[in-house]
Structures are given as structure tokens and as C-alpha cells.
From TrEMBL:
<keyword id="KW-0325">Glycoprotein</keyword>
<keyword id="KW-0255">Endonuclease</keyword>
<dbReference type="Pfam" id="PF02265">
    <property type="entry name" value="S1-P1_nuclease"/>
</dbReference>
<feature type="signal peptide">
    <location>
        <begin position="1"/>
        <end position="23"/>
    </location>
</feature>
<keyword id="KW-0378">Hydrolase</keyword>
<keyword id="KW-0540">Nuclease</keyword>
<dbReference type="InterPro" id="IPR003154">
    <property type="entry name" value="S1/P1nuclease"/>
</dbReference>
<dbReference type="InterPro" id="IPR008947">
    <property type="entry name" value="PLipase_C/P1_nuclease_dom_sf"/>
</dbReference>
<keyword id="KW-0732">Signal</keyword>
<keyword id="KW-0479">Metal-binding</keyword>
<keyword id="KW-1015">Disulfide bond</keyword>
<protein>
    <submittedName>
        <fullName>S1/P1 nuclease</fullName>
    </submittedName>
</protein>
Length: 273
């Protein structure tokens, strides 16, 4: 591993250890991106603006859902096929949520490997701006996905996609409820939602678990353990107000954690060493 990548991995491992504190649909992804952008270093902010210039925006929130949107663009069909399995991880080892790469990320096709790949490209100034721009957008998106618990769920129900529920008087599935259904009950757009969550201060990060050599894997395990909580899968397949009252704060805390960690990842990758 080149020295710059070694330094980045070591710095991210330190971030895991500091206590304080479609995945999400477009609303959640925009919130994570906007939370992160509020806490970028001046150097990282300048590099974000440089890389997004071709998109005629300076806001990460404007491009945060692009890795999902390319599935509907025939011109991006090849890129979608190359990246579609990088949005999630299906743990195969049961409720322990232990990450075993040969089992859980075969051929590097999971979100943990996806983040490793794109963070390395983003931080490599020898790469063309077009490649680093795409890497930036994938990092923003995948950091959001990584903190949506059902993007780090179990193979048997495909991260809640096969767990049918009744929500808001309609049939749905648990994955969709977590992606967007619960967040929309606030009735806020992404700007107002970002303001609300940022006003709560820095998110408290879960305590780290050794080894600390792969932060993305550890963060995936954290998210997976949320899905293993006793009440996460609703009784009777019905998502009522009691469930929303209990789980919406969990979802919002994941947005806050994702925004904080994304800011740190971008600050490390985009600030000259």
C-alpha cells in the first residue's frame, strides 16, 4: 500500500476510536452530504468545488444520489453494472455481523471494498479530474449507504427488501421504510432536515472494536448490529407510530454519524499530505 494510502487508513482508524460521537433515498443522501459539507476543511472544500465545477454546482447534496440515478441512464449502463453491487453488503454469518471478506465481499463486490476503491482514487492527484469527480460522488453516496442499517443486513431477506410490511396504510417493505418512508414523516426538505440535525451537535460515535485496520468494515458491522436488535423487525409486519417513534431517532442518528464520518474521510482524502 503506498504511503499516502497507509496514512489515510491509519487516520481513519483513529477516527473510529474517537468517542464523541438505494440506501437512503434522495432526502437522506442529500442530508448526509450537506451535513458533511458544513464541516469540510478549507482545502477540502476548495477541492470539492474544483471537482464539481463540471456539474455546475458546489453542493455535494446536488450529486449525492447520482450513483443510484445512473441505473436509469442507458449511457451509464456499463458503470451501473460495475458498481451496483457496491451499494451494500449482505452479511452471511448470522446475527454476529462479523465481516469476513471471502464470505461477505466475494470478488470485492460490496460496499466496504467500494469505499476502499473510490477513496483511493479520490486521494490520488495523479488521476484525471473526471475520475476523481466520479470517485467523490461515489464516496459521498456510499458513506450514506453504509450507515443505512439495511444496506448492511442479511442475505436471507436481501437487506429487508423481502420483508413485506404495512406502512402508512400501504404495502411496502422494511428496506424502503428505512430508505425514505420514516424520514418523510418529518415533513422536512433536505435543507431544513440538515439544519435540524446539525443543530444537535456532533454525533456520538459508537465505541470501536479491535482490530482497527479497516474502518469501513467496522462501520458496516455497526450498522448491521442495528438490524439485529430485537424490535428492529416489526411484529406482525406492521410499521405503526410506535415503531416510527422508536426507530426514527435511530435513523436520524445514523444520518448524523454518516455526515460526521464523511466530512473526516473527505478532509483526509482531499487535503494535501
Amino acid at each position: 500500500m503506498p504511503s499516502a494510502r497507509r496514512l489515510l487508513a491509519a487516520s481513519l482508524a483513529m477516527l473510529v476510536a474517537i468517542p464523541v460521537a438505494q440506501a437512503w433515498g434522495p432526502l437522506g443522501h442529500s442530508v448526509v452530504a450537506a451535513l458533511a459539507q458544513r464541516h469540510l476543511s478549507p482545502a477540502a472544500e476548495a477541492e470539492v468545488e474544483h471537482l464539481l465545477a463540471a456539474d455546475h454546482t458546489t453542493r455535494l447534496a446536488d450529486v449525492a444520489s447520482w450513483p443510484d440515478q445512473i441505473q436509469d441512464n442507458p449511457a451509464q449502463a456499463t458503470l451501473w453494472q460495475q458498481t451496483r453491487k457496491l451499494h451494500y453488503i449482505n452479511f452471511r454469518g448470522g446475527p454476529a455481523c462479523d465481516y469476513v471478506p471471502p464470505r461477505d465481499c466475494r470478488d470485492g463486490e460490496c460496499i466496504v471494498a467500494g469505499l476502499q476503491h473510490y477513496v483511493a482514487i479520490l486521494g490520488d492527484r495523479s488521476q484525471p479530474d473526471s475520475a476523481r469527480r466520479d470517485a467523490l460522488v461515489f464516496v459521498v453516496h456510499f458513506m450514506g449507504d453504509l450507515h443505512q442499517p439495511l444496506h448492511d443486513g442479511y442475505r436471507d431477506d436481501l437487506g429487508g427488501n423481502k420483508y413485506q410490511v404495512q406502512f402508512d396504510g400501504k404495502g411496502s417493505n422494511l428496506h424502503k421504510v428505512w430508505d425514505s418512508g420514516m424520514l418523510k414523516t418529518r415533513g422536512l426538505d433536505w435543507q431544513a432536515y440538515t439544519q435540524k440535525l446539525d443543530a444537535e451537535g456532533p454525533a456520538a460515535l459508537p465505541l470501536p472494536v479491535a482490530p482497527l485496520d479497516d474502518p469501513y468494515a467496522q462501520w458496516a458491522e455497526e450498522s448491521c448490529r442495528i438490524t439485529a436488535a430485537p424490535a428492529f423487525y416489526p411484529d406482525g409486519h406492521k410499521v405503526g407510530q410506535d415503531y416510527v417513534d422508536a426507530e426514527l431517532p435511530v435513523a436520524e442518528n445514523q444520518l448524523r454519524i454518516a455526515g460526521r464520518r464523511l466530512a473526516e474521510v473527505l478532509n483526509l482524502a482531499l487535503t494535501p499530505q
